Amino acid sequence: MGVEVVVEGLSKSFGPQTIWRDVTLTLPPGEISVLLGPSGTGKSVFLKSLVGLLKPEQGRVVINGVDICTCSEHKLYEIRKLFGVLFQDGALFGSMNLFDNIAFPLREHTRKGESEIRRVVLEKMEMVGLIGAEEKLPGEISGGMRKRAGLARALVLDPEIILFDEPDSGLDPVRTAYLNQLIVDLNAQIDATFLIVTHDIGTARTVPDNIGMLFRRNLVMFGPREVLLTSTEPVVEQFLNGRRQGPIGMSEEKDAGQAAAELAELRDSETGVPHIIPQLEASAGLPLRAAVRRRKDRVMRDLGSLDPSAQQEIVKTLTPDERARYRIGAQEPGTGAWPGQTGPVAAQPMPPQDVAQVPPQPPRPSPTPRPRQDQRPPWAEGHESEEPVAARRRWFGRKRDGDR
Ligand SMILES: Nc1ncnc2c1ncn2[C@@H]1O[C@H](COP(=O)(O)OP(=O)(O)OP(=O)(O)O)[C@@H](O)[C@H]1O
Fold it and tell me: From the CA of 29, how far away is ligand 1's center (Å)?
């Protein structure tokens, strides 16, 4: 199972420019989380901070008990071995064929022999559907194939945390859909902790277990997908429903045509009302995602603390067996309450035999509390400046000292 990433009170500035402040969230082990936000809100800076390439001024990033913001270079180097990163452009070497590109981290950072390298590379190429393309150069293949090659390269060192920097950038909707399915399938196979940075509403609505959103120097929310997908927080609602009306200005987001097309896909064709699209499942023949059961236990344990609309959506996804297991009765029509409950739905403790089957649970990544109506949220002030994204990223600079 992947490892938990705990971020506490993280703040990052460049000179006088505050990128974000006081970011607190937990990426639960093995789950898929998505980080959203308009351009320039510091999503890439956040990814770089997680692997210790950038040093936030305040706060902690704790992985396996190590705070990577303050640990020694040696410890940081060890922790980085846990990460795999899919770069926006795949970051492939143009003069190397796909096999050599994917083999590169193994040759650079391990002492594996060529036959073992071949075995690992072909295994990962098979996982991403690239068998047969070993001899191709990056310039000879499509953008989608380049992404998959970049993903195979991110997988060769068997990472426990995978960061995806805008995996859908430059892909058409069909290729994005294939890549999203591949991400879910990979999660089912390797059970690593995934964090995806994206602008794509379809990806945000169908792939993750948890969603977070950065806006105007703050983490507006982070929590289970149902919480954000039913949120009435203006910036979250606007972003996730692709609406033009709202706090996010055009200078901060995509063009109107793209937003309208995405919105049309997401609305009920008869009522025009946005609805929650079911989360993607792993393809037939693959194991069920272990994270699904873990997440359900975690979310059901804290159900009573969530917004009623999120509670409704979560309860809707339960099978009859799960309803029995979590002691959820039939819903009273129109009341939003369940029989015997006067307040929000609260999951009952599981019977002892069920508790024994549930692995130890991490602390819940609590949704950022919604501000009271009389409080103006910090992200409601001013506008972000827009600056070009830092281009190519190199995350690992040195040789690994041992085999993995
Ligand atoms: N090394 C750096 N030095 C100074 N400023 C930087 C550095 N890296 C990033 N920035 C600034 O941080 C801000 C956030 O950049 P970042 O690339 O993280 O945004 P983003 O949310 O990922 O954007 P996009 O969605 O367009 O990729 C930008 O204003 C950028 O210019």
Answer: 27
pLDDT for residue 22: 95
Q: Is the CB of 390 under 6 A from ligand 1?
A: yes
Tell me, what's the pLDDT at 179? 86
User: Which residues of the chain carry a pLDDT beneath 70?
Assistant: 89-90, 242-275, 330-404
How far does CA 372 lie from the centroid of its chain?
28
Residue/partner pairs of 115-118 with CB below 8 Å, 24 or more apart? none
pLDDT digits (tens, 9 = 90+) for 114-154: 999 999 999 989 888 888 889 999 998 888 888 889 989 98
**How crowded is the C-beta side of 97, counted as CA atoms within 13 Å?**
10
Under 8 Å between Cβ of 50 and 163: yes
The architecture (CATH level 2) of 5-269 comes to: 3-Layer(aba) Sandwich (3.40)
Atom of ligand 1 nearest to the CA of 384: 29
40 C-beta closer than 6 A to ligand 1: yes
Q: Is the CB of 387 under 6 A from ligand 1?
A: yes
Structural domain spans, the chain: 5-269, 290-357
